[in-house]
Amino acid sequence: MWTDSHCHINADDFDSDRHLVVTRAREAKVKYILDVSDDIAKTPRIIDFCAKNKNIYTTVGVHPELADKYPTLTAAQLIEHTKSPYVVGIGECGLDYYYNSDIKDFQIKVLKEHIKASQETGLPLIIHNRDADDDMMQILSENYRQKPFNGELHCFSSGAELCRVA
């Protein structure tokens, strides 16, 4: 039995063959799929997809590359979606300065709201980090000291130092 712990099967790229992708995963003995959210606006559609497909779950979040599209995002908005039994995590969220260092302030603000949502719900945080180690370490350690949370480091190209902080 296998679990796909991070995919984006609800990405627009799969609009024409999404159900075939799930069928192939099942044939390959993938029992559970975590269809990670990267755009909160798609959350209702993803939850509906999960409800129609056994053992597919999701998260609620905004990818750092989209952070400037959600400048007023709040933890409460994220938490509202966690009422669904198909939502099992918060994210994908984080910092990505490789492509979008010009929206750094938006990314930091949106990440902090995701952390609050994780702290309040107890759901794991799915963290995307690329070329932003110093800021990520500061934000994670600062917020963890206020109230612990857990999660997964995704898109991780860092070293042991970030692992120790996270």
Structure write-up:
This protein has 166 residues and is α/β, with parallel strands linked by helices. The protein is 41% helix and 23% strand. The protein has 7 helices and 6 strands; from the N terminus they run E-H-E-H-E-H-E-H-H-E-H-E-H. Strand 1 (2-7), helix 1 (18-27) and strand 2 form a beta-alpha-beta unit. Helix 3 packs across helix 5 (104-121). The protein starts with a strand and ends with a helix. The mean pLDDT is 94.
Give keywords:
single chain; 166 residues; alpha/beta; 7 helices; 6 strands
Order of helices and strands: EHEHEHEHHEHEH
The largest sheet is: 6 strands, parallel
Tell me roughly what share of residues is in helical segments: 40-55%
Q: Low-confidence parts lasting 5 or more residues at pLDDT below 50?
A: none
Q: Strand order, main sheet: write it out.
A: 1-2-3-4-5-6
Shape: globular
Measured between the Cα atoms of the first and last residue, the distance is 29 Å
Radius of gyration: 16 Å
Give the overall average pLDDT: 94
Percent strand equals 15-25%
- Number of DSSP helices? 7
Structural class: alpha/beta
- SS elements, strand count: 6
Topology readout:
Blueprint: E1 2-7, H1 18-27, E2 30-35, H2 43-51, E3 56-60, H3 75-81, E4 87-96, H4 97-100, H5 104-121, E5 125-130, H6 133-146, E6 151-156, H7 160-165
